[in-house]
Design goal:
With about 280 residues, the protein is of the alpha+beta class. Helices cover about 20% and strands about 30% of the residues. The chain has a domain at about 60-245: Pnp Oxidase, Chain A (Roll). It has helices at about 5-20, 55-60, 80-90, 175-190, 190-195, 200-205, 265-270; strands at about 40, 45-50, 80, 95-100, 105-110, 115, 120-125, 135-150, 155-165, 170, 205-215, 215-220, 240-245. Strands 3, 4, 5, 8, 9, 12 and 13 form a seven-stranded antiparallel beta sheet that branches. The longest helix has 16 residues, at about 5-20.
Length: about 280
């Protein structure tokens, strides 16, 4: 159930939803603990999020198929459901923005946030990659491990990747800018937007926020062992398998300028020792 009165509340709900995903609650591609009735409410219950029913209603529909997003190679790794796109977006931390500037391609790593219809990118108003005067491609990739086969040719990487194509829009409406920046902040560090000082007018004037629709996207995911388990190379007697890769948040390191009595806020301290992103689910 999603019943938000205004845009700001709507964006807060999706930021909170991302926090739930990151803390390991039920997700279609999460290995966290299942929460059948995970509920988030704010503003005296005016906006509520229910999972998994809410998640299924929001994302269980097919991705669009275009000439750019059609899976031609390794089709078995392609995913056609929108839930897979949102699972990759929720798990990732860094996006790569591909854009052509002055006739030259450039790819810029950047943080991001997202809601049910768009991915949001931000940076300086002077940034050439954020001019929004040309089509762009945004890619999110997660490496889940190495696939070590019996022959070098069959080696691979277990991964999750999403590519989003389209024409970005410069967000200018003040409430939408503020809400979009909140999404970015909460995606990276849930709880930090309300803990830290929020942007002032001068900072907002120096910041550009882009919104790219999620209408045209492609998702590929590889999981599992090498593909040569039934090949003649099994006779070689060599070890083959997977070498998983897991990223884990470490203990917070305080700024040396902090007074000694300044404690680590709970929303930061609780992430230490947890996975930076959930592992892919076997399919």
């Amino acid at each position: 159930m999603l019943g938000c009165k205004d845009l700001g509340e709507r964006f807060q709900i999706f930021a909170r939803a991302d926090e739930i995903w990151r803390l390991g609650c039920w997700l279609g591609h999460s290995d966290g603990h299942q929460a059948d009735t995970a509920t988030v409410a704010h503003n005296a219950g005016e906006c509520q999020l229910h999972s998994p029913a809410w998640y299924d209603q929001r994302v269980s529909n097919p991705l669009s198929s275009t000439e750019r997003t059609k899976h031609r190679r390794l089709r078995e790794q392609g995913r056609a459901d929108r839930s897979d796109l949102f699972a990759v977006l929720a798990a990732g931390l860094v996006a790569h923005l591909g854009v052509v500037s002055d006739g030259w391609p450039m790819v810029v790593p950047t943080s991001y946030g997202f809601d049910e219809s768009s991915i949001f990118l931000h940076g300086s108003v002077a940034s050439v990659s954020l001019r929004a005067d040309t089509p762009i491609c945004v890619t999110i990739t997660l490496a889940d491990g190495l696939v070590l086969a019996r022959s070098v040719f069959e080696h691979a990487v277990n991964y999750r990747s999403a590519m989003i194509y389209g024409y970005p829009r410069i967000v200018t409406e003040p409430d939408e800018v503020n809400a979009g920046l909140r999404l970015l902040s909460e995606h990276m560090a849930p709880g930090q937007w309300d803990y830290a000082r929020q942007p002032n007018r001068k900072e907002l004037a120096a910041t550009r926020l882009l919104a790219l629709p999620l209408d045209e996207a492609s998702v590929k995911i590889r999981t599992g062992p090498p593909d040569d388990g039934d090949s003649p190379d099994t006779a070689l007697g060599l070890w083959a398998g997977e070498l998983p890769l897991v990223s884990t948040w470490q203990q917070p390191v305080p700024d040396p300028a902090l007074p000694p009595y300044t404690g680590v806020p709970p929303h930061i301290a609780q992430r230490a020792g947890t996975r930076a992103y959930t592992q892919a689910k076997e399919t």
